[in-house]
Amino acid sequence: MPSEKTSEKNSEKTIEVTSEILGQFLAYLEVERGLSQNTIESYGLDLEQYINYLYLNSKNEKEFQREDIINYIDHLRDKGYSMSSICRFISSTRAFCKFLLIERHRKDDPSETVRLPKKWEQLPKALMFDDVLAILTTRVDTKFVLRDVAMLELMYASGLRVSELVNVEVDKLEMDAGFIKVMGKGSKERLVPVNERARERIKKYLKELRPVILNNKHSPYLFLTNRAEPMTRQRFWQTIKAYGQMAGVELSPHTLRHCFATHLLEGGADLRSIQKMLGHVDISTTQIYTKVSTEKVRKEYDKHHPRA
Question: What is the pLDDT of residues 166-181, one digit of tens each?
Fold first, then answer.
């Protein structure tokens, strides 16, 4: 039975819950399903918050019903969670319910008839090129500026996911050829182009800052913290947020990835090529960027046509 502790944080009541069943589920995802550590961590965070919500409403992780899932989805919407975050929660809950059935903790699946909402009702935000340029030319007063600039340039140059960016290894760089090998979702490796500007930023970081950070230590990872450890997604989010504020641009962790795809498409790139570079398994995921570009065309039409 989970232990619990009631607390107040930002005027919102929470319960610190330690669930043995949740721990077993996460171990199952790793051992039986072979999911990536990033996916397991994301599922764990989603379900910890959901179980907390259940306990605040006198329920628990073995006895919730479909209505509880729907109510929690409405709760997430009210708190301003993105559509993609809500979709991930539903996926987490579906996997958890199947586990509860397998382990005979319950005889029904309350998530069975819960459908994913249209994930892209809210279009990804793509900045104008001038805004991206402002970010890439901004210099925050930090001794790690060479690292930060290299990361930002690489993300926009190659459209990497944050998790891919922070896990890039030095021996995966093919500087002369202008490519980088990236380990994406499902442990699938792909080859992504890197432009000259990004390569120059990386070379400068490798020559002038990375050896200082390492201080005779060794690490296979390209981008390191002051402790010579690989960057975390959370730390990079803090970094990109600081650069966005300095440039006067609102950023999210995936903004530069969205800009990479949208700007390529607007420049005439083939959708299949963009799909390959982004590492999308299904081209329908890539097709969202055609909708983004269509929205931009519509705005330009409404703005400039004399009869619009």
Answer: 999 999 999 889 999 9
Kindly name the residue from 88, 254, 258, 263 that is annotated as catalytic.
254
Q: Which domains does the chain have, with CATH numbers?
A: 6-102 (1.10.150.130), 129-304 (1.10.443.10)
**88, 161, 199, 258: which one is catalytic?**
161
Q: Which of 185, 233, 276, 296 is catalytic?
A: 185
178 in Cβ contact with 193 (< 8 Å): yes
Q: What gap in Å lies between CA 148 and CA 243, rounded to an integer?
A: 9
- DSSP secondary structure, 3-23, as one string: B--EEEETTEEEE--B-HHHH
* 257 tagged catalytic: yes
CA distance 158 to 165: 10
Burial class of residue 48 (count of CB atoms within 10 Å of its CB; 0-12, 13-18, 19+): middle
Helix (H, G, I), strand (E, B) or coil at 264: helix
Name the token pair of 237. Answer: 């989010």
Q: How confident is the model at residue 250 (pLDDT cuts 50, 70, 90)?
A: confident
